[in-house]
Design a protein that fits this description.
Rossmann fold; five-stranded parallel sheet; 457 residues; 3 domains; alpha/beta; Alpha-Beta Plaits; 17 strands; 49% helix
C-alpha cells in the first residue's frame, strides 16, 4: 500500500523517528515543523494522512486540525493527532476538532501502521467518490463538501451488539438523546439486523463468551448492504492484538473500557459525519449517472442510453430467436408549435407527449427521446403486427385529445407520425432495423402525416 503521509512536529527528532518507521513500510513521507506549513502542504499537495503533533508553538495541533477540517479542500484528509498527553479530555478535544484518531507517545509501531493503513484505505474510497462527483455537471460539489454534517439535527441511528446487560445499560445511558440506539445481545441476530436496517454506525463488544467478534466484523464488511457502515469495536484492556486485527479487517475505530462518555460521543459523531459525507458523494455519483442516461425534459431515457441498450436487446432477441420491434415517432409540424407558442409551449407539448407515450407502452418496453421531437420505443418479444397496433393506439391517443399549454391551459391540436420495423429472420443488424423504421416514418410524414407505416423489409 503506497500513500503520502505528512508528519507534523516541531521537534526534528520526533519527525525523523516517524519518518524512518513510515519509510520502512514504503510510504512516501512529507514533513512540516509548524502549523501554517502543514496547512499549506495539505492545500497544495496530495496528502493521504496527516500525523499531527499537538504541542507546537504559535499554532497547536488542535487549531491546525480545526482549520484543515473546516476547509472543503482539505476536510476529507484523515488526521491522526499524536501527543504525550494522555488525558481523556485531550482526546475528546482532538476529536471535537475533527481528528480521526488520537495516539499517545510513545506510539506502538503496530498500532500506528494498522491505523495509518486503515485511514489510507478510507481516504482512497473518499478520493474516488470525490473524483467522480467533481467531474459531473452542475453537481454543486463545493456546496456539498462544505456542509457540516456533524451539526445536522438528525439523530444518528446506531446498533449496539453486546451480550452483557450491565455494559448495555451504561452505553444506553451515555447515548441517551445523542443517538437512536437499537440493542441486540445475540451477534447472529445483530448481523441480520444490521443488514436489514439503515444504521449509521454499528458498535460491537469484544466481550462475548463463545463468539469471535471479529467474525461478525468480517461478515459485515463482506456484505454489500453493510460494507460502508462504520464499525466501532468496544474492547478490553490488553486486547491490542485483537484491535489491530480488527483494523486490518476494516473496522473504523475502537474504544477501550472503561468507556468515557465524552470520548464515545465524540468518536461516534466523527464516524457518522464521515459516513454522511461519503453517502452524499455516492448519491451525487448515482444521480449523475442517471442524469447521463435520462432526458431532463421528459424523464425518458435519452439517445445515449438507447445507443448502448438497443444492441443488447437486439442481440438477446436474435440469440433466443424471439421477435423485437422498434417504432420511431415524430410530432407533426412541431416547428409551427414552437413558433406559435414559444419554446416553453413546445416543451409542455413534449412533456405531455412523453407522458402519453409512457402510458401506452409496457414496463419492459424501452421508451427514449431520440432528439428534438423524435421518440423511439423498443418493444422486446413483440411481432411487427402487434407493434403496428400499439403504434396506431399511440397515434390515436395523441390525436383524440388536445394538449393544454400555458397558464391559461390553451388547447392545441397535436398529431404524430410513426414508423415501425421488426427484426428480420436471418441476417439483420441494429442499423438496418433503425433504418427501416426511419424510412417508414418518412413515408408516414410524406404520405400526409398523422399515420402509421410499418416496414417489413
Amino acid at each position: 500500500m503506497t500513500a503520502r503521509i505528512l508528519v507534523v512536529d516541531d521537534i526534528p527528532a520526533n519527525v525523523r523517528l516517524l519518518e524512518v518507521r513510515l519509510l520502512a513500510e514504503y510510504f512516501e513521507v512529507l514533513t512540516a515543523t509548524n502549523g501554517p506549513d502543514a496547512i499549506e502542504t495539505c492545500e497544495n499537495g496530495k496528502v493521504d494522512v496527516v500525523l499531527l503533533d499537538v504541542m507546537m508553538p504559535d499554532m497547536d495541533g488542535f487549531e491546525v486540525c480545526r482549520r484543515l477540517k473546516s476547509d472543503p479542500a482539505t476536510s476529507h484528509i484523515p488526521v491522526v493527532m499524536i501527543t504525550a498527553l494522555d488525558q481523556v479530555s485531550d482526546r475528546v478535544r482532538g476529536l471535537e476538532a475533527g481528528a480521526d484518531d488520537f495516539l499517545t507517545k510513545p506510539v506502538n509501531d503496530l498500532q500506528l501502521m494498522t491505523r495509518v493503513k486503515s485511514l489510507v484505505r478510507l481516504k482512497s474510497l473518499t478520493d474516488e467518490l470525490r473524483l467522480r462527483a467533481s467531474t459531473t455537471r452542475n453537481i454543486g460539489i463545493e456546496e456539498l463538501l462544505s456542509r457540516n454534517f456533524a451539526s445536522e439535527d438528525t439523530t444518528p441511528k446506531v446498533l449496539l451488539i453486546d451480550e452483557r446487560k450491565s455494559s448495555v445499560e451504561r452505553i444506553q445511558k451515555m447515548l441517551r438523546d445523542r443517538a437512536d440506539l437499537d440493542v441486540t445481545h445475540d451477534p447472529h441476530a445483530g448481523f441480520f439486523q444490521a443488514a436489514e436496517t439503515s444504521y449509521e454506525c454499528v458498535m460491537i463488544s469484544t466481550a462475548f463468551a463463545d463468539f469471535d467478534p471479529l467474525r461478525l466484523c468480517s461478515q459485515l464488511r463482506s456484505l454489500d448492504r453493510t460494507r460502508f457502515v462504520p464499525i466501532i469495536l468496544l474492547a478490553e484492556e490488553g486486547e491490542e492484538e485483537r484491535i489491530i486485527r480488527g483494523l486490518e479487517l476494516g473496522i473504523n475505530d475502537y474504544l477501550m473500557r472503561p468507556i468515557d462518555q465524552q470520548e464515545l460521543t465524540a468518536r461516534l459523531r466523527t464516524q457518522v459525519r464521515r459516513k454522511r459525507y461519503n453517502d452524499q458523494l455516492r448519491a451525487s455519483v448515482t444521480q449523475t449517472i442517471e442524469m447521463a442516461v435520462t432526458d431532463g425534459l421528459t424523464g425518458l431515457h435519452n439517445r445515449r442510453y438507447l445507443d448502448s441498450h438497443l444492441q443488447t436487446l437486439f442481440d438477446r432477441a436474435v440469440a433466443r430467436r424471439r421477435p423485437l420491434s422498434v417504432m420511431i415517432t415524430d410530432l407533426d409540424r412541431f416547428k409551427a408549435i414552437n413558433d406559435a407558442h414559444g419554446h416553453d409551449g413546445g416543451d409542455e407539448v413534449l412533456r405531455e407527449f412523453a407522458r402519453r407515450l409512457r402510458k401506452n407502452v409496457r414496463g419492459i418496453d424501452l421508451a427514449c427521446r431520440f432528439g428534438g421531437e423524435e421518440f423511439v420505443v423498443v418493444m422486446p418479444d413483440t411481432e411487427g403486427a402487434v407493434a403496428e397496433k400499439v403504434a396506431e393506439r399511440i397515434r390515436a391517443e395523441i390525436a383524440q385529445a388536445a394538449f393544454a399549454i400555458g397558464q391559461d391551459g390553451k388547447a392545441i391540436e397535436v398529431t404524430v407520425s410513426v414508423g415501425v420495423s421488426s427484426v428480420l429472420k436471418g441476417v439483420d443488424t441494429v442499423a438496418a432495423l433503425m433504418k427501416r423504421a426511419d424510412l417508414a416514418l418518412y413515408e408516414a410524414k410524406s404520405g400526409g402525416r398523422n399515420r402509421v407505416v410499418a416496414k417489413a423489409a
